[in-house]
Every structure is written in C-alpha cells, then in structure tokens.
C-alpha cells in the first residue's frame, strides 16, 4: 500500500506507526508541520497557507492538497490528531480517509466554550465525513462520539500498545531500597506534586524507599522546591527527560510505578502499559482512559486524583507485601501481552486499511 499520514513527524507515536508500516514494505509519505527524520518514510513539510482573507485559505489549501494527492496517488490517507490541518484534506473528497483521535484534540475541548466556532465546526465536520474513526480506548471513543454526535460503537478501538520485546522484564541489582518512580513531563496535569506530597507519610513508615522522577517541564523548579520544603531531598532524585529508547533502562530501576495524572485528557495511559510490560506494579489515578490501561487490584491500584493520602495508602499496601508486588508485576505483563502488544495493535490498523481498500473506491 501507499499510505499518506497527516501528523507531526516529531511525535514518538507518529514515528512508531510509520516505522511499523515501513518495515512491512508499504510506501509511506507523511505531511507534517514539524521536521524529523524517520527511516522508510518521505516527509513533506506542511505547506498550509494562512492569509487574512475569509475562505481564501481553505480554497488555496484544498488546491495544495489536491496537487499533492495527484503526485503521490496514495491508497490511504490517515489523519492522526485533528489539528492543525483544518478542513482542506477532508474537502479533497479522497476515500478512504481515516481519522484517529489521540486525546487532547478531543478531551481538551469537551468544554466547547474554549473553542472558536470555526474550530468546533472543522473538527466535527472532519469526524462526520471520515471513512472511519479510530480511538485508543473506549473512553476516548465515547468522548469523540459525544463531541461530534456519533455512535461510539462505530468507532474502532486501536490502542497505542508497546513493543513487548523492547519493554520486557530486566534483571535488577539486589537492593534493600525500594524505588518508587514515574516517567512523565513535569506539568500540572500529570500530578507530580501529589506524588511528592504523599512521600513524607510513606517515608515515616518505610525508611528503605527512594523516589526517581524522570522528565522535564516548566514545573521542575517548583517541584524541586517542594521536595526541599518537605525535607525529602535525600531520597528524591530528578532526572531530565530521556530519549524514548532509554525509557526501558530507567523503568528497570523502578519497583513501583506511579501515574498520578489529574486530567481527563489522559485518554489512555501508555506509560502505565510500558511499566506493566516490564512487570512493574502501577499506582495510577482513575482518570480518562487510565482505568482501561490498569487492571485495578490485579496489575496495579487505581486511586482518586489529586489525593496524596490515597497515593500514600496505595504505596504502603505494596511496600508491605513484596510477594503481592511481584504477583501484580507478572499479571501486568500478561495483561499487556494479551491486550496491548504493539504489533497486534498495529496489525489491527493494517487489517482495517486492507478491508477499506476492498470496500471503497480508490482515488483516480
């Protein structure tokens, strides 16, 4: 197949989709508003015109997209994330046209008052006119359906799973200290401060813990000061954001993974899936689609968001019972292999492509 993606090539999830299909021997093109180098793909810089003339931008951009389609002659066009392409791609009347919502493109705007009428109209029109819509979880599918007045049962669920070979259990150096950790951007919506606020109570009971926080973001200085204020700097380590390829190395240092997100825009919970694939039990907030990514009581513990006490209680349950931690870890990997094996998830998308090409008329 000749597949054209509309997405930002800088996103790791975009790169994973492209690399999968390229390795399968498909010809891959991507129209991107950001530059990146991805093996096996031809990247075309987004060339969307923005002039202050009503409707003129859309008309000119339709002409640009039509010219691109004539040159490339794709079999499939697949838009990942609803921004920033506007109406132009869908108005080219190319079929099949697949749209995948990622989370913040929908969940960030369920309160429609924050969007302009033009944004609302554009997104809803694209979703209604797409040949098929996919989402990563049932939660996101229902949110997408609510946003655009669709039947959520007609939205295909295709998770962003993990490479179970890349994220696999690793031998750990025996240590008397138990590491509690998280790997996320240091932004308010990821709730890092609630984990930090939970630690003093845990430390009062369990002196053999340490905390590893991996990530970058504008809250970093605030969080470092909070650690000092709570007098736990002797057990908390901050590590700057690491390349995706190094995430398994840092996860291998963690005994209990914490995901204290506070926002419904957490539509899936890939970080929790990655940790479970490495047999690490998870403590996570019950927000967005995270409850689909963690099997509560079996592979981890789900708690209410913005609640340091709940985090502390969950951590102490796991700290007092090593056997339960190990059992949860093993069940976590089994859970991921069954439901979130990346090759199976991507294979489902490939099957959707082939089914659509068998049913729909190709672009001539």
Quickly list its features:
41% helix; alpha/beta; 14 helices; six-stranded parallel beta sheet; 364 residues; Rossmann fold; elongated; 13 strands
Explain what the structure shows:
The chain contains 14 helices and 13 strands. The chain is an alpha/beta fold and 364 residues long. It has a seven-stranded parallel β-sheet with strand order 3-2-1-4-5-6-7, sandwiched between helices. It has a six-stranded parallel β-sheet with strand order 10-9-8-11-12-13, with helices on both faces. Helix 10 (270-277) crosses helix 13 (322-339). The protein is elongated. The mean pLDDT is 91.
**Between the first and last Cα atoms, what is the distance in angstroms?**
15 Å
The helix count comes to 14
As a percent range, the share of helical residues equals 40-55%
The description of the largest β-sheet is: 7 strands, parallel
SSE ordering:
EHEEHEHEHHEHEEHEHEHEHEHEHHH
CATH class category label of the largest domain: Alpha Beta
CATH-level-2 architecture of the largest domain: 3-Layer(aba) Sandwich
Task: Look at the structure and name the CATH superfamily of the largest domain.
Answer: Glycogen Phosphorylase B
| pLDDT < 50 runs, ≥5 residues | none
Radius of gyration: 22 Å
Classify the secondary structure makeup into a structural class: alpha/beta
Strand order of the largest sheet: 3-2-1-4-5-6-7
**Total beta strand runs:** 13
Shape call: elongated
């Amino acid at each position: 197949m000749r597949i054209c993606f509309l997405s930002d090539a800088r996103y790791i999830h975009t790169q994973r989709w492209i690399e999968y299909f390229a390795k399968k021997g498909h010809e891959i093109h991507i129209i991107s508003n950001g530059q990146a180098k991805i093996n096996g793909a031809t990247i075309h810089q987004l060339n969307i015109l923005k002039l202050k003339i009503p409707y003129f931008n859309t008309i000119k951009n339709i002409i640009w997209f039509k010219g691109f389609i004539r040159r490339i002659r794709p079999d499939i066009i697949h838009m990942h994330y609803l921004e920033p392409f506007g109406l132009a791609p869908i108005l080219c009347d190319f079929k099949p046209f697949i749209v995948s919502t990622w989370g913040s493109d929908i969940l960030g705007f369920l309160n429609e008052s924050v969007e302009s009428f033009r944004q609302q109209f554009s997104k809803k029109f694209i979703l209604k006119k797409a040949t098929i819509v996919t989402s990563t979880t049932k939660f996101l599918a229902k949110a997408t359906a609510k946003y655009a007045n669709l039947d959520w049962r007609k939205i295909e669920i295709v998770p962003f799973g993990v490479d179970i070979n890349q994220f696999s259990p690793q031998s750990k150096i025996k240590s008397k200290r138990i590491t509690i950790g998280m790997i996320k951007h240091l932004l308010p919506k990821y709730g890092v401060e609630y984990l930090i606020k939970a630690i003093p109570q845990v430390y009062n009971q369990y002196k053999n813990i340490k905390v590893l926080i991996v990530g970058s973001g504008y809250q970093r200085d605030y969080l470092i000061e909070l650690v000092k204020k709570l007098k736990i700097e002797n057990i908390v380590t901050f590590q700057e954001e690491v390349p995706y390829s190094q995430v398994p190395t840092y996860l291998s240092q963690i005994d209990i993974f914490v995901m204290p997100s506070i926002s419904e825009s957490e539509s899936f919970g890939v970080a929790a899936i990655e940790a479970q694939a490495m047999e690490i039990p998870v403590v996570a907030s019950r927000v967005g689609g995270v409850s689909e990514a963690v099997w509560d009581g079996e592979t981890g513990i789900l708690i209410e968001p913005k609640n340091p006490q709940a985090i502390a209680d969950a951590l102490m349950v796991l700290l007092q019972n090593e056997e339960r931690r190990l059992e949860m870890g093993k069940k976590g990997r089994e859970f991921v292999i069954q439901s979130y094996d990346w090759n199976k998830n991507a294979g489902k998308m490939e099957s959707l492509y082939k089914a659509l090409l068998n049913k729909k008329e190709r672009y001539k």
